[in-house]
Amino acid sequence: MYSRNLKAYLAKIDGKFIITDTINVYEVNEVGARIFDLCNGKNTLEDIAFILAKKYEVNKEMVLEDVKNYVSVLLNKNFIFKD
Predict the structure, then answer these.
(1) Selection from 25, 47, 29 nearest residue 38 by Cα
(2) Secondary structure letter of residue 42 according to DSSP
(3) What residues contact 16, with CB distance under 8 A and at least 6 apart?
(4) Of 39, 40, 26, nearest in space to 68 by CA
């Protein structure tokens, strides 16, 4: 499971989503914002992929690979951590 860094937060400014820790700013799309939001310490990667696949009516296995890649980026930027 993955949780958000307490210093990182999601904001919507002028219709754009950003994740920031007040030092770094990372612009993301709606799906990226949703993945960050779902990193709440309760969801596994599979849970996140299932939620997104259901919402966007796409294949869960395909979404899972994208979620893994995106979560890796969030981890590298220290916006989230693995529990």
Answers:
(1) 47
(2) S
(3) 27
(4) 39
Q: Tokens 């820790």 appear where?
A: 21
**Which residues touch 8 (CB under 8 Å, ≥6 apart)?**
19, 20, 21, 36, 78, 79, 80
The pLDDT value given to residue 39: 98
pLDDT of residue 28: 97
Task: State which residues of the chain have pLDDT below 70.
Answer: none
pLDDT number for residue 31: 96
Contact at 8 Å (CB) between 81 and 75?
A: yes
- Coil/strand/helix, residue 9: strand
- For 64, counting Cβ atoms within 10 Å of its Cβ (0-12 exposed, 13-18 middle, 19+ buried), the class is middle
